Amino acid sequence: MSRSERSSLLLAGLLATAGAAHFTVPRQFDAIVPSALPGSARTWTYLSGAAELALAAGVALPRTRKAAALASAAFFAGVFPANVKMAVDWRHRPAPQRTAAIARLPLQVPLVLWARGVAKAAGEPRLNP
Questions:
Q1: CA distances from 54 to 19, 20, 42, 49, 76 (A)
Q2: pTM of the predicted structure, to 2 decimals
Q3: Is residue 125's pLDDT more than 80?
Q4: Is 125 left (phi over 0), alpha (psi -120 to 50) or beta?
């Protein structure tokens, strides 16, 4: 298995794990849904979980990998406001929780870059079929 294939499958696994978590422990995600969004937080939790599962499937399949990886990069950027909300809401929590919430903020950058890298690799011709 090539390095780019491994990277793609790892990204798909991350997305699938996060997507499944939205359905198994939705309360933790409900809490970080920005209040400016219309409707219930649970609806947004389920929608974002379903999106992550769909993106995971798309990234896992070579035929749809490039488009799904680009959509994943956009998704990672789009959920940034939820991470900001979490950091703000957790500013008075104990130091380890506060640190974890703040540490999530810059983590979005490597996730976006990773997804873009997967998309780029998917668009390049394969040397070994």
A1: 9, 11, 18, 9, 14
A2: 0.89
A3: no
A4: beta
